[in-house]
Predict the 3D structure of the following.
Amino acid sequence: MNKTILITGAGRGIGAEVALLAAKKGYNVCVNYLKNNETANDVVNKIIQDGGTAIAYQADVSVEKEVYSLFENIEKDFGKITALVNNAGILERQSRLDDLSLERFNNIIKSNIISCFLCSKLAVKQMSTKYGGAGGAIVNVSSIAAVTGAPNEYIDYAATKGAIESLTVGLSKEVASERIRVNAVRPGFIYTDIHADGGESNRVNRLAETIPMKRGGLPSEVANAIIWLLSEEASFSTGTFIDITGGK
Ligand code: NAP
């Protein structure tokens, strides 16, 4: 069967690693990005050089009409997707809740939750047997912050990840009999550029001692779990979560 995967925010970090690994597993890879076409094209070129198939798609996945165009463009290029990774997400500068603006809170909700809702909705329309689809799998990228709440750092971010977890559980049950599995991963401290966006590029190293394994995680270690959840090896798993935290 032809396998096509859409990974949101796949130009760098965890999403880029998922894209590279998915190509090795035989997926046609749709590399979504927001602004940085250079890094997204690097990911695509690497996949093509290694004999895989990939296309980069610019779209802000928190904006409804852009998500509709994204799915239409992918369908023209590859047909219906069979796998979706809701990976795009943002972090803002470290702050207490009493210093957060409403504008920032709304922006985080839009980027982290609305994006997941919109892409999941269109994926279900393509995958579900209810609409004549052949089924598929969705993995949402949550965070261990959904459990810890990220006090004194990013309660707004943690709250969006909590919402994604509820969405994962509910949607998994809604579409379980329509041949769609919906799962999530909870990464801990992973070496990517998101921490620089949060105002502390050295954050993972600073916190490494607090992790039982005494080190931060690699994007590839998260990608391995995501690709497993998407695969037939996880055929009886839905509505479930994998923590990738080094024991934290
Ligand atoms: P990252 O390096 O900052 O990459 C995120 C990518 O998402 C960026 O390349 C960005 O694209 C893209 N993006 C952001 N908003 C978007 C939008 N509205 N539409 C389309 N693309 C968008 O982040 P990461 O660390 O790999 O994180 C990936 C996911 O893992 C996020 O959901 C994050 O919350 C989660 N996570 C990360 C960690 C960690 O320690 N790194 C821990 C727990 C959870 P452009 O480059 O084009 O701007």
